[in-house]
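[User]
Protein folding is very new to me. Any chance you could explain this protein sequence and its structure tokens? I have pasted everything here:
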Amino acid sequence: MTVEDDGNSAPAAGAPVAGDLKPPRAIKFYYSIGQVVESGYLATNGFIFFYYTAVLGLSGSMVGLALAISLCLDAAADPLIGSWSDSVRSRFGRRLPVMLIGAPLTMVTMGLLFAPPSGLSPLLLFGWLTMTKMTVRAFASMFNIPYFALGGEMAEDYVERSRIVAIRLLSGILVTVVITALAYSVFFAGAGGLQSPDRYPAFGWSIAGIMLVGALICCAGMWRYAAALPQPTTAPEPMTRRLLGEFSEVFGNPTFRILFGSMLLFASASGVHAALQNHNYVFVWKLRPETMQILSYASLAGILAGIPLTSMLLRRIEKKTAVALGFALVVAFWTILPGLRASGVVTFTGADALPWLAASTFVVGIGIGLIFIAYPSMMADAADEHEHLFGTRREGLFFSGLGFAGKAAGGIGTLVGGFALDLLRFPRDAGRQINAVIPEDVLANLVLAWGPLPAALCVVGGLVFAPYAISRARQEHISADLKIRRAESLSAGRSS
């Protein structure tokens, strides 16, 4: 796909002005709506693990293996998607065409993920889970990778990039609230609702429809601005010929390796925690479905509180410091309450446990908010540094690397969670029994695997992150240098 420009046409309404990449509020609003695809998918992850293990009866190891295979194979495709979106030339820009292909395919595969045919053998159910999970994540990546890269291209300012991430995260919070309310108050309401297999297909197709509508609204509102952003000026080499060199180039950047490695470990920790969350809520803390949503809202409230907090902090401190603070909060509050429960110091359940779980979850949400706002913003800064060092822009590959780390590690985390269930000898038929009695030693180990184990992985991720070195001053220097280079390139192109 190519575009032609005589160099004399006026910018379209809503298009960015050359040398002043700072999108208006309307563009940021439409952009933020696209977060529905990623947030909608993430909001269903815990339900998938619980559905296939506790409800459909697959072993934790088989479910963990299926999710790990699907996520890792999908993650391997992310660089291809990133390179593809980097090289597209079209009247809609280089990102939107790929997003428009991915959105409807995501809807179809998401619905199928929650609607396996009845009567499948364990082996066939394993295959269904593997294939549907792999395809829904791959098609979601076709939307999300260019979508995240587009966010990095929309602005050049150190703080403005964090604002764009913040409004996207705010949109994700609202989406997650809606999905959580639908899940616990409509589809799974009532005692034992999460343990009823006939409720899951309607839930899956409903979420899939919400994701498609949000994706289409985002693309419709963004296309003029996205089309006016810089595109490749020449046709790229075939992907098979260029991808290996692009890989070597990106991994030759130390900043990328730091961000990639630390996100790999943090996402692994989050994957373990998320995989075991509903098991802990149902069997350890003995919460009803209507009560579980309160904890989801507490987490989202923490993330929401982290948005203005991050903006305030980034006016005074470096992004690296904000991320370190986020890591510290997550580690502390994934350890304290689960550790006390496992040691027998606290034994409350049900309504008595709710305030303590809500407070802990709220603080973890603040830490996650700090991390999730700063990380994509730092990846955009790293892409600028890469152009400064290598002379090429690789946002697609950079954000595919961030996605690869998150998804491959999420697969690893889910795999660890699945094997943990089997190693703990968690009863496979417990999910189909209301008020099932589980041995106390199994419950104690389950809560340790849910809290302190992922906290330890976060500590290692923080150590990997420690050498990150793009400060505010360095990013401003890089941005100024790139503006000069682009102006000189544009002037040379016009004179020729």
